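Example record

The entry below shows one chain as it appears in the dataset: sequence first, then structure tokens.
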Amino acid sequence: MSTPEQLHQFYGPEWNTRDTDLDQYEYSGYNLGEVVRAGERVLHVNCGNNPFRGMIPNFQGIDPVNTNADLVTTLEDYVSTHKTSRYNVAFCLDAFTGTEEYIRSQIALLMQKMHKRDIRIYWRTTTVGAYPWTFDMHNRLAEQFDYH
């Protein structure tokens, strides 16, 4: 589990106020608001300053430390306390840090919050930090959790 201290260490002092200007991301920026269909429910994991708030109906942003989130909580705590909440879409934009085992556990937790069909996860990983992400790793994780 990532503690607030580990997240501060990973992202540095900007963790609470990191830039949420998503215009720089061609596939995982503000355009994500346009891929959500009417009636879908969206969970944004580690949402930071919650840039999609107000843009997407049926939206919930969670973050372990940023008070701009709809709920200040970890994914672990959210899954254990919101047992009936289900989502069609999840945004995980630079949300997963740590070892491969930890990242897999986070995706498995997230899967507990997703409907069983017609679901999508949009994830983006940082190019700096503790885990050496590769395209092959992204493909393996997607395949393991039955995503494309």
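Notes for this example: Residues 22 and 30 are 6 Å apart (CA to CA). The mean pLDDT is 83.
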